[in-house]
């Protein structure tokens, strides 16, 4: 890493130590046939951070989870006809937590949630015009 980034070995080691401490990367065993000091290899810890995506349409709610390297680890569709925003929010919350429990995803690992709605968002007017009763 120091050669590619033109950092000092000490700075690179400190950065790696912090990433390991926060479990964002993990060490893997390097198999080499060379003589001398063995190299240390690190890879992203796939389960370190999880992102959730929620899509709410007129009759379907989809919830999915991506791991730290962008792999889809779970996705599920639910038939649901939104009638009231608070009912929709409660339904989504329950299904999200249900899937997290089923997939053993701890809340501390959830980095963010993205929600897609059928409609338009006017950032200047700070309004969201949805289609349907969401």
The CATH architecture assignment of the largest domain turns out to be 2-Layer Sandwich
Series of H and E elements: HHEEEEEHEEE
The number of distinct structural domains comes to 2
CATH 4th-level superfamily of the largest domain: ATPase, nucleotide binding domain
How large is the share of residues in beta strands?
Answer: 25-35%
Poorly predicted runs: none
What proportion of the residues is helical, as a percent range? 25-40%
Largest sheet: 4 strands, mixed
Distance between the termini: 49 Å
> Which CATH class of the largest domain is shown?
Alpha Beta
**Which secondary-structure class do the elements indicate?**
alpha+beta
How many β-strand runs?
Answer: 8
Radius of gyration: 21 Å
Overall pLDDT score: 86
- Please list the strands of the largest sheet in the order they lie side by side: 5-4-3-6
User: How many helices does DSSP assign?
Assistant: 3
CATH topology of the largest domain: Nucleotidyltransferase, domain 5
Overall shape: it is elongated
Verbal overview:
InterPro entries: ATPase_NBD, WH-like_DNA-bd_sf. This protein has 134 residues and is of the alpha+beta class. It folds into two domains: 2-44, no CATH class; 50-130, ATPase, nucleotide binding domain (Nucleotidyltransferase, domain 5), CATH 3.30.420. Helix content is 26%, strand content 34%. It has helices at 2-5, 9-21, 85-102; strands spanning 25-28, 41-44, 50-56, 60-66, 72-79, 110-116, 119-122, 127-130. A four-stranded mixed sheet has the order 5-4-3-6, covered by helices on one side. Strands 1-2 form a two-stranded antiparallel ribbon. A two-stranded antiparallel sheet has the order 7-8. The longest helix has 18 residues, at 85-102. The model has no long low-confidence stretch (mean pLDDT 86).
